[in-house]
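for the recovery benchmark. tokens below, seq after
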């Protein structure tokens, strides 16, 4: 079984996220999503999410491409995650291109093109949240 992993906040889940998850799953048989916790978001990523970790986890678990959701608590856990879950492929959107090349030592690293016209920031701005 070919395992794929990806990381993110996935707040206000939108079709750009779904496009990423669909293509990530297509690279293997089993997709793990490491979902940023509320603490990681607020302290390390300076992101205040609209939905809590539990709510974002619930949404992701309902996505047909997602097989497992685990917490992303810090920047440093990726190597451990890749080893622990015997991951074959690490996937991120290309806004992160190059940032995780160090993982090439442990697994394949793939950067997929972002869906350009949509973002959580844009949604909030358009809705004036
Ligand atoms: N994404 C995308 N197209 C968009 C928006 C997001 O392909 N229009 C992708 C991002 O490139 C990322 C994933 O969807 O791969 C999740 O996006 P975010 O929740 O914004 O993730 P981010 O906050 O960048 O967290 O350790 C890595 C971080 O946790 C990544």
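predicted aa per position
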């Amino acid at each position: 079984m070919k395992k794929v992993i990806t990381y993110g906040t996935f707040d206000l889940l939108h079709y750009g996220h779904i496009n990423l998850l669909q293509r990530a799953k297509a690279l293997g048989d089993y997709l793990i999503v490491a979902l940023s916790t509320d603490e990681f978001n607020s302290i390390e990523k300076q992101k205040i999410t609209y939905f809590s970790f539990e709510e974002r986890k619930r949404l992701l678990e309902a996505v047909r491409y997602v097989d497992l959701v685990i917490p992303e608590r810090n920047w440093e856990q990726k190597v451990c995650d890749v080893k622990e879950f015997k991951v074959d492929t690490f996937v991120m959107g290309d806004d992160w291109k190059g940032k995780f090349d160090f993982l090439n030592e442990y697994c394949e690293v793939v950067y997929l093109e972002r869906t350009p016209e949509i973002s959580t920031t844009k949604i909030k701005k358009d809705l004036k949240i």
